[in-house]
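[audit] Reproducing an earlier prediction to check determinism. Same input, same settings, fresh worker. If the tokens differ from the archived copy the diff job will pick it up downstream; this log only records the rerun itself.
[audit] input (167 residues):
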Amino acid sequence: MQLMSLELIQQKILIIRGKKVMIDYDLAQIYGVKTFRLNEAVKRNRRRFPQDFMFQLTTEEKEELIANCDQFKTLKHSTQLPFVFTEQGVAMLSTVLKSDRAIEVNILIMRAFVRLRELLQTHKDLWEKIEEMESNYDHQFKVVFDAIKQIMNVEEKPKRRMGFHAD
């Protein structure tokens, strides 16, 4: 089975509860195992997966995930609530899943998380530069803005009403 590309793995990183996570269903597909086998391995090593490494979705979160992402339609009829893994949880999976494929997949997933973090940082830097330019722009063109305001404040003479008026 061929490994997924970095871009495809990046698309499987979701933001849930304000954290970048991957759902057990997607991880199982990437690792080439069944979802219940992946979760079984995690349950056998539960101490390795504290709440900030892995958590289970609520019913509402699962329904929202199904409603917003077509790829999760198969979860609609599942009786189990999915688990999601943070970057640290995915890294910990490499200690639980010991195949050669698991090692290769884990490296790819870590690269995807790093690349996503870099993209978000670049986006943040651009946003800060735009705000800085905007504040400089406001300062440089204060005279222009003041002139426009003065023009807009010029009082107009009241217009004479047309037609018949019974005053």
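[audit] rerun output stored. Observation attached for the diff report: Helices lie at 6-11, 24-31, 35-44, 59-68, 87-96, 100-140, 142-152.
[audit] end
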